[in-house]
Each structure stands twice: as C-alpha cells, then as structure tokens.
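Milestone 3.1: sequence recovery, worked example.
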C-alpha cells in the first residue's frame, strides 16, 4: 500500500491555531460506515448518537510541560523535549541535534542546568543538577504541536489538557478528548452510557512522519499503557465500545481477547501496534477522533476503521464546510 494514496490537500488556514473557549461548541461530523451518510452537528449533541449500555473509553493521560528552552555555555540556544524518565535519567530529544555531544551542559537559569550523558536508540539521556519536577514546573513549556504557529500561552496549560487528565506522562494531548466537559460526561452517565478510562502516554511517535513509501514498512515507537481490571470488565459487558481517540483504539486493540472483547486486567506494557487499512478490528465499534494530517499514522488508522473512500469523502466535505483541523480542531464520530 502506497503512502501517496493518503495525501490530501489540507488548506493551512483550516489548521486550528487557538482552542475554543467552550470546548463543547466545536463541530461534530457524523460518519455512518454502512451507508456512507455524513451529518453535521455540534459536539454538545454527541448524546443523540449514543445509547444506554454503550461504553465510552477515555485516555486519562496528562500532558506535562515537556519543552525546555536553554542555552550552551557559548550562549547558543538549545531546545529539549523530555520524553520519559528512566531511573535517574531523562530520555529526550535535543535540537539542533548537530550541536549536541556527551557531557555538554544546557543552562536554564542561575546554576540550573542539565547535563547530556549519552545517546541510546536515537534519543539522548540527560540529568539535572536540581529536582527535575521543580525545573519542569519553573522552566517547562506546554509542548504544542509544530503546526500551531504561535508560542504557547498560559491558556494552553488548561485547553491542551482533557478535563479528566490524571496520570502525567504525555508530550501530546489525546486530542479527541479535548472536546469533553464535565457536564457532557455527567450527562452521558445519567443517560446510561458507561465511562471507563485507560492510560496511554503519548510519545513522539504521534508526530513521527512515515518515511517509507510502502506503509507496511513503517514502525511505531513503543508507548506505555495500562488498563485496570474494572475497565476490562466494563468493556466486556458493553453493548458498543466507543473509543475516544486513536490512542484508545491502539490500546484496546493491543489487549484484544479471544473469547471476549479484551483480556482481563490489570494489564500494562508497551504497544507498537500500527493500524492501517486491512486491519481487522476486534474491540472497537465506534470512534471519536479529530481531523488528521495527510499521510499520518492517525489518518491511516481512521481509514482502516471506515475505509479510505469514506474518510476522504468526509474530509472533503469537512473542508468545504470550513471545519477546523488537527489538535485544537473539530471532531468526527464514526459509527
């Protein structure tokens, strides 16, 4: 399967640069897979398309302020993207990469610095001379995606985070969840929709471009996930499983069971599951997701879920109707 088949002409003016003040007032495109029918609603109307007995599965990961801007002793600017902590060292990406070498110090303030230790598997390991949580709190910046062409602001600490975020560990938000408010979640519960949570910490793989023309040769970066016993029990009892975001899809499909929807929890590990057209879904019945970049792994996943033809039809209609795309953009529900 060729990567070029998943290109589409995204108007850069449709890439949302700002969050909506009211999360739930974004647009919601409904795509019905059986008929190909496309409907247009507000996200606040989501309940119209759910039923009592459905289960809505959320990713409760929490984004941390993973970007640090510092400088070398020479004064040259250095940017760090923290990924995850291993023992006492942080795995990180450092830019510009050509200026990085072991034992180099990167300064953030008076007597506050990180020291580059070594490189492992294309990532740098660094340590800090002060408690890392204090450095992240004081100097960290919200890691907005590269296609948001402005500097992060204080509001992003609120809006680039789901209202149900709990477990710190992501460098990118599970963006399908950004549309939910506490009111919507409570209303769905009262209506009879079950709410369950998993955790998948989103890493740099979410932005990693596919560099192979044959998509089957692409490899995902492993991402840590965990699913509780309670969540697996609720999923196995549900009428329909509605995944909120591609990270939830990848987690649930990674723990698919043979005699039930998913294996019994608690389950944790790392997943490298790459879902592209031809994949047979075992767990997920419906999907809430944003509109994704051309040739990206999330786009391939939604094409696998609803076929390339239906997704591209929906994207074309969304562009005609000026939907907002990508992280701070509008949503679609595929049923």
């Amino acid at each position: 399967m060729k990567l070029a088949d998943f290109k589409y002409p995204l108007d850069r003016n449709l890439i949302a640069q700002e969050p909506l003040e009211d999360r739930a007032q974004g647009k919601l495109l409904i795509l019905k897979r059986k008929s190909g029918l496309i409907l247009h609603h507000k996200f606040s109307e989501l309940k119209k398309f759910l039923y009592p007995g459905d289960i809505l599965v959320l990713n409760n990961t929490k984004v941390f302020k993973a970007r640090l801007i510092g400088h070398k002793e020479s004064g040259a600017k250095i940017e760090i993207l923290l990924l995850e902590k291993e023992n006492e060292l942080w795995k990180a990406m450092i830019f510009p990469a050509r200026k990085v070498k072991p034992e180099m110090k990167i300064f953030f303030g008076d007597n506050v610095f990180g020291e580059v230790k070594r490189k492992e598997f294309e990532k740098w390991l660094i340590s800090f001379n002060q408690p890392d949580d204090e450095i992240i709190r004081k100097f960290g910046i919200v890691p907005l995606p590269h296609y948001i062409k402005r500097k992060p602001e204080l509001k992003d600490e609120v809006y680039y985070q789901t209202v149900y975020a709990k477990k710190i560990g992501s460098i990118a938000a599970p963006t399908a969840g950004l549309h939910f408010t506490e009111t919507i979640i409570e209303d769905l519960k009262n209506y009879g929709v079950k709410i369950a949570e998993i955790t998948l910490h989103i890493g740099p793989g979410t932005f990693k471009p596919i560099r192979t023309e044959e998509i089957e040769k692409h490899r995902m970066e492993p991402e840590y996930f965990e699913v509780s016993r309670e969540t697996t029990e609720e999923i196995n009892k549900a009428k329909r499983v509605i995944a909120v975001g591609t990270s939830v899809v990848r987690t649930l499909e990674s723990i698919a069971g043979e005699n039930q929807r998913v294996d019994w929890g608690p389950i944790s590990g790392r997943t490298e599951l790459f879902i592209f057209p031809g994949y047979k879904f075992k767990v997920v019945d419906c999907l809430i997701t944003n509109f994704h970049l051309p040739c990206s792994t999330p786009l391939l996943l939604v094409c696998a879920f609803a076929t390339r033809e239906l997704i591209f039809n929906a994207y074309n209609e969304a562009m005609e109707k000026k939907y907002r795309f990508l992280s701070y953009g509008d949503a679609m529900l595929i049923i």
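DSSP finds seven helices and 17 strands in the chain. The first strand starts at residue 27 and ends at 31.
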